[in-house]
Automatic annotation (TrEMBL):
Pfam families: ABC_tran. GO terms for molecular function: ATP binding; ATP hydrolysis activity. It comes from Halobellus limi. It comes from the Archaea. Residues 26-247 form the ABC transporter domain. This is ABC transporter ATP-binding protein.
Length: 295
């Protein structure tokens, strides 16, 4: 089933609270965010279940990174709420992988995860070794970060974000710049994590991988989700043969609706550049790796 949501305005409050719904790992309601006079997010709502891979796709500058930072608790929105149930036993609630993770090149892969493990309660060397194996880096555990390929470095970032077994994993363009084989490998790891019960939220332009591995796809454009549903449902709704084709049709329809509402011939290029600058500006803040649910 494909869901198309109307635009709406939420209240001017933000809450990150603990909840008790066992199946729902993350729920966002009416998220709003503006930068200056640019409305980047206009009432975005999202619910992600445990064991679900939820993909967020959209044009450059559509607000994907801004939304992910809000979901991870790194940035506070102008309005709306984010609810993450309290993780059992003091475990991490949310793990976050930014689009451009940075590590000390002189550290080994094992050193890197060992460093982050010290920041988490109850995570030891055995957990580090298990995490390296989990993301497929056991064979290069003692190689320096500087000697790793781009894909392996991205897997190392994934390993850091899953230390402590967070109930929710949020990733911003993890496949950016990787070859197709490494993208497939990375999304395969995400599928394995979901099979273990982790809720995965991933923003990606790698639409073939999204089509193959995501349970639900949310198309973000013009400040809200233009359509949401399983890959198969989106293809059926748009009568297309691939998620790439479905995406283009949905985004074009969104632009057409905006044109009718505004009475102009096309989306103004200056608005698009403002939106891109706003989304980029939101990425420059401190990149925390964890959000804890309120006690």
């Amino acid at each position: 089933m494909v869901s198309r949501r109307p635009r709406r305005r939420g209240d001017r409050r933000c809450r990150v609270v603990s909840g008790d719904a066992p199946a729902t790992a993350l729920r966002a309601r009416a998220i709003e965010q503006s930068f200056g006079d640019v409305d980047v997010l206009s009432g975005v709502s999202l619910s992600v279940e445990r064991g679900e891979v939820a993909a967020i796709v959209g044009p450059n500058g559509s607000g994907k990174s801004t939304l992910l930072r809000i979901l991870a608790g790194i940035a506070a929105p102008d309005g709306g709420s984010v609810t993450v149930p309290r993780a059992a036993g003091g475990a991490r609630s949310v793990g976050y992988l930014p689009q451009r993770p940075a590590f000390r090149e002189g550290f080994t892969a094992r050193d890197t995860l060992g460093f982050y493990a010290q920041l988490l309660d109850g995570v030891d060397d055995e957990d580090v070794a298990a995490t390296l194996d989990r993301v497929g880096l056991s064979g290069v555990a003692d190689r320096s970060v500087g000697s790793l390929s781009g894909g392996m470095t991205r897997l190392l970032g994934l390993g850091e974000s899953v230390l402590g077994d967070p109930s929710v994993l949020i990733l911003d363009e993890p496949g950016s710049g990787l070859d197709p084989a490494m993208v497939e490998r990375l999304f395969g790891v995400l599928g394995d994590l979901a099979a273990d019960g982790t809720a995965v939220v991933v923003a990606s332009h790698e639409l073939p991988a999204v089509e193959a591995h995501a349970d639900t796809v949310h198309v973000l454009d013009e400040g809200d989700f233009g359509a949401s549903g399983s890959p198969a449902a989106l293809l059926a709704e748009t009568d297309t043969g691939s998620l790439s084709a479905a995406f283009l049709q949905i985004v074009r329809a969104e632009v057409g609706e905006a044109t009718v509402r505004s009475g102009v011939g096309s989306r103004p290029s200056e608005s698009e550049s403002d939106d891109e600058r706003a989304d980029g500006a939101a990425e420059t803040g401190a990149e925390s790796r964890e959000v804890a649910a309120d006690e």
